[in-house]
UniProtKB/TrEMBL annotation:
The keyword Metal-binding does not apply. This is Tyrosine-type recombinase/integrase. SUPFAM superfamilies: BB1717-like, DNA breaking-rejoining enzymes. Residues 271-463 form the Tyr recombinase domain. The lineage of its organism: Bacteria, Pseudomonadati, Pseudomonadota, Alphaproteobacteria, Hyphomicrobiales. Keywords: Chromosome partition, DNA integration, DNA recombination, DNA-binding. Pfam families: Phage_int_SAM_1, Phage_integrase.
Amino acid sequence: MCNDYRLMVELASIIEEFEHLKIKIRFPEGRPNIEAREDIRITDTAPIVRSIEGERGAGELVQRRWSWPGPSKKPVYNFRSEGREFASNWALILSDGFYEFMWTLWRALTGGNDAIVRRREHNQYELVDETGVADPLVTSFATGLIGRGCSPHTVAAYLYDLRLFYRFLAETGLTLSSFRVAHSVELLAWLGAVPCPRARITSFPSAVRTTLSPTSINRAMAAISSFFDHLALADLAGVDRNPLATTQELARGGIARRRARGARRLKRVERIPRPMTREQVDRLLDVIDRPRDRAMILIMLQGGLRPGEVLNLHLDDIEYGRRRVTVRHRIDHPKGVRTKSRTERVVDVHEPEALAAISRYVLEERPRNAPTRHLFLVCGKGKHAYEALSYAALVKMFKRRCATAGLTEPWITPHALRHTHATWLWEGGMRELALQKRLGHVSFESTRTYTRVSDAVMLEEYRRALSRRCEEQADAEQE
């Protein structure tokens, strides 16, 4: 450890990181106001996470001086340098972007010796074992994903999938070089038995999924296949080819590839999106009086923008005269918010409420001398008023507004506004190709999900058939 460090992350980001570790953070002294600080010395008070005696999977976040007194009453920042070991009362010191882990505490919090995914500075990810050593092969793979422009969330998800794969190899006695395509069936069965930390309620209350979903398993298989591709290209771990790419797939291509992949993938449920009703939308808008919040809600509802696209809007992306919004691909948000699609698009917004709300927000609430061009800022009178709004802040605001409106359904999220927008346009008669361009979908299959919510052609055929049946029954009664 060092004798000073920096901490610039928000409290919401800290909580999110520990949720990835399956550790619940508690605040016995209340939620602290963590300030962004460039230089925290060993005698300064700073946030730490300490273990709870006799309890696993939880920790307490408090503000403490992160050094401790030594025999000479001077602060000590490297306890083991004096030849001593902690017996209890371990604590994690929160640092900028990653945490300097003390592995005995980690095992005390989680109750296991499994590897974990650790995020370092500049969105660098590692798969770290119980001794604190990062796996170099996975680190190389993660670096390659970042170099290809993958989202940090995608990289983290892939590394969590590789953590499961490493557990499978350890339990079966296999290695990376000895894994063959014949083992893929056994791997699928093993992944299907992995317990899910969160219970997934299905359409029937009695049907509760306690294991990984088919979507999660398919993503894990894709991550493992990409990992083997990387090892083969980089000539690492004695892997010269991807064992999940069969010989038929390599030799025949197209059709054989689809059949081979089908044998290593699970069929997943094709779920339909859940749009909000007119009543639910009206209830939500009735409780939003702050200009900034109302502007964000309306542009997602009437423009169909994703939450990440809204937070990445700049002032010059809004064209009030032409009544349109330009959605650009941006990855430079100071809070790490990224736009999902790499295809930039222009969205016409002819419903007057959204642009009127944005104009009111810019004129009345947004700080006029803010140094950033980002449209949506924290605002207010605090010292963070000029900062761009984070995704966690948007979600927190939306949940608070929904609770005030009495909308407690878990599926009502900021993204549900985009589903609502698309469903209303489809029911209004917009063609599938036009809807695909407006939403910025790369795959046509993503747009077709909205046709299953309400298909106008199918409804018309159903009404025609029903009317014909009623007429035949009336004719039969008259005879």
